[in-house]
Amino acid sequence: MKEIKVQDAVGSVLVHDVTQIVRGVVKDARFRKGHVIQAEDIPILLRLGKENIFVWENEDDSKLHENDAAEILRKITQGENLTASDVKEGKIELKATCDGVFHVDAEKLNAINAVDEICIATVQNNIPVRKNKSVAGMRVIPLVIDKDKMERVKKIADNLPLMKIAPYKKFKVGLVVTGSEIFHERIQDTFTPVIEAKLKTFGLQIDERRISDDSKEMTCEKISELLNLGMEMILCTGGMSVDCDDKTPAAIKSTGADVITYGVPVLPGAMFMLAYKGDVPIMGLPGCVMFSSKTVFDMILPRVLTGEKLIRKDFTTLGVGGLL
Fold this sequence. Notes:
The protein has three domains: 2-55, Molybdopterin biosynthesis moea protein, domain 2; 63-167, Aspartate Aminotransferase, domain 1, CATH 3.90.1150; 173-316, Molybdenum Cofactor Biosythetic Enzyme, Chain A, CATH 3.40.980. It has helices at 41-47, 66-77, 106-113, 147-157, 180-183, 191-200, 216-228, 248-254, 288-291, 296-304, 313-316, and strands at 2-5, 18-22, 26-31, 52-55, 63-65, 82-84, 92-96, 100-104, 118-122, 128-129, 134-140, 144-146, 163-167, 173-178, 206-212, 233-237, 258-262, 273-277, 280-285. By secondary structure, it is α+β, with helices and mostly antiparallel strands. The chain has a six-stranded mixed β-sheet, with helices on both faces. The chain has a four-stranded antiparallel β-sheet with strand order 6-7-11-9. Helix 2 runs parallel beside helix 4, helix 3 runs antiparallel to helix 4 and helix 7 (216-228) packs across helix 8 (248-254). It has eleven helices and 19 strands. The radius of gyration is 28 Å and the shape is elongated.
């Protein structure tokens, strides 16, 4: 490509989109890449602030145009349940094709963005997104970029797409409400409606509900009963703090479940517990879930509902951003 004065550009082919921006009215390409410049285009280009313009000439085999480079970025990022926009002004956008949780290989993405003149931006990792939500945008910074840089990018990606949307699955949900005050009907259970509302967001319901006193033995019995009924996720409310009557963590352990974490670096929700009995997640929910609009439960539930089996590292890394 070469740079020439706009007045000398009649008959030349544009090498890039020319954007028109009118605040509150339009921000779009006035002329597209490949447009053959006509005499009547010259006054318009001048009004758009273009004294000089890039046009095609003999191409350098060591360079890639921004649109072609953006297409490479799309190929290495677009995974399951993502759709891509057409390239526009050198940029491509990815959107979710279903409700689910957005996942990105952050380590590889950071390494790719460390390559000079590369730009890939995403929403936060591991967050729930709705269908048609924009989750990523990408481009290269210059109009043309060295092919060698794009080869480095492809090597880092290692032929695997960096991003995907994990869709939600259907679960049979069992709930164990703990507390002697509720078991003996001294107070009304106000925790269940909160859980029902949160599950409804994902098209789920409480399929089986049991009430236990504060004893480890009864709570363990109720959890085991729900497991035997084929529940695919079990939630236990209350009894999660350090009070002497709070036996829910011990009850969950007594079922033989594999405890992933008891205690997380998130506030509210530090006393949260996750365990697995085989493939069935069992969660111990602290009292804050009942009265705080957002807790660690809201961070973890969507991921569990995609079928992802979480490990301890998934929790130890929540501290940055964990003050909700």
